[in-house]
Known about the structure:
The complex is a heterodimer of chains A (about 280) and B (about 240). Chain A is mainly α and about 280 residues long. Helix content of chain A is about 75%, strand content about 0%.
Amino acid sequence: MSAATLAAEGGSSRTAPRLNGTLVxxxxxxxxxLAAVLAGPRWLPSxxxxxxxxxxxxxxxxxxxxxxxxxxxxxxxxxxxxxxDLVVGVTALLVPLVTGSLLGALAAWRGGxxxxxxxxxxxxxxxxxxxxxxxxxxxxxxxxxxxxxVAVAAVAWVSYMRIVRAEVHSAMQQDYVQAAVGxxxxxxxxxxRHVLPNVFKQPLTYAVTDVVVVIVSTATxxxxxxxxxxxxxxxxxxxxxxxxxxxxxxxxxxxxGLAVVLVGAALALLGNGLSRQVDEA
Amino acid sequence: xxxSVRQGEIVGVVGESGSGKTSLARCVAGYRTxxxxxxxxxxxxxxxxxxxxxxxxxxxxxxxxxASLNPRMTVRQTLREPVVVHGLRAAGxxxxxxxxxxxxxxxxxxxxxxxxxxxxxxxxxxxxxARALALEPEVLVADxxxxxxxxxxxxxxxxxxxxxxxxxxxxxxxxxxxxxxVSHLCDRVVVMSQGRVVETGAVDDVFLxxxxxxxxxxxxxxxxxxxxxxxxxxxGTSRPDPSQ
Lengths: 281, 244
């Protein structure tokens, strides 16, 4: 690590970003996962194709992780589930990332009653137990992906609001923002050109780690039976389904469980690596 | 308290920390409203809620050159923005003006596309002065503009300010706790203590024949300065600074 850093410093370029080890490791793991998720379907049977003559088969050259109680290929299902969870984790966060950041910027910028109202609403949302909130929502919206999206959008914005609000507050004290105000620039120009470009990194790096939270809650909800509906493969649902057969075919539960851990760890590393990279920049 | 700055004059404000120097600077530059009293330019009252045109007339140079430039903007972008926003040059002539500005403050043109973190403290302070000059202000408020810089670089920035006053006829309100720097640069000086002006007058009068006991006390507390009373003939005589 230090040898690599020294070698990179010896180079002439001052602007080329030097990636830290955590970030490199995270990117490597995610690339391998992505390659497996994208390439898997070419060689493996469809994750929903049943073969009732070949149920609960042990690992073989055809099915590397064996088959489940309906003869479906376990590896194909785990890969499809990783893909689904990653897509849900990322897309579900887009709305709260944007709304939370805008509300935070607005609260810090305008202050006064706007700040008060946003703060109180955030406190109310945060005071509610997260899973209870999602379960109640799922009860009203029905099980399925849409309730996960709505629930995440309704809850996750609070973190982004708080992060951006604090960042904008401290950015407004910076001399370069004061200089922009002193130059007679309009409020929107100061906010858009001088404040926000210097605060967007923090919510983005946080979002990367937040994807893990969404994936785990998607898995939890599906495990509880209110998330993704069968037969769509989802990691939490796979763990839950496999439990019945844990004594015969432990891989049915262990494989998707390990996948959750792997995806979560890779994303957490990515978040750590990114924030360290941002701090150094 | 009352103090006036004539055109083309550099007025120093000295006093210990907490004496109200920075508050004074911020009132004049329009960042806060004075608890009592007014700031006037050519008889026109300027509050903190002033419009863009009034803001343009007073520009500020900040103490910490590491915090006063937007880290995401290159020197060129930083200097273009005020010129464009205030429409000070025709669209096709903005680039020319930006080069003029860096020449004026003695910053090499090859730094135009650098971001602040690629510049030394002295270079940043030059860029920051150029940004203030971009608006062609009548008054420049410099709040301890050299106290965060190396001694050799300090002299260069001070000479730059004196030079700008001579060439542009600008008035400069120079806030400093450094008596030696003020006596080197300023025409007149205002001594502040606990939010009040205790003494004011020409630099030589005040520093050589102080009348107020506080001024005497302040002068007595001055440590020997590396080039006190002797403006360096060339920066090379001071401690060499590798970053310049």
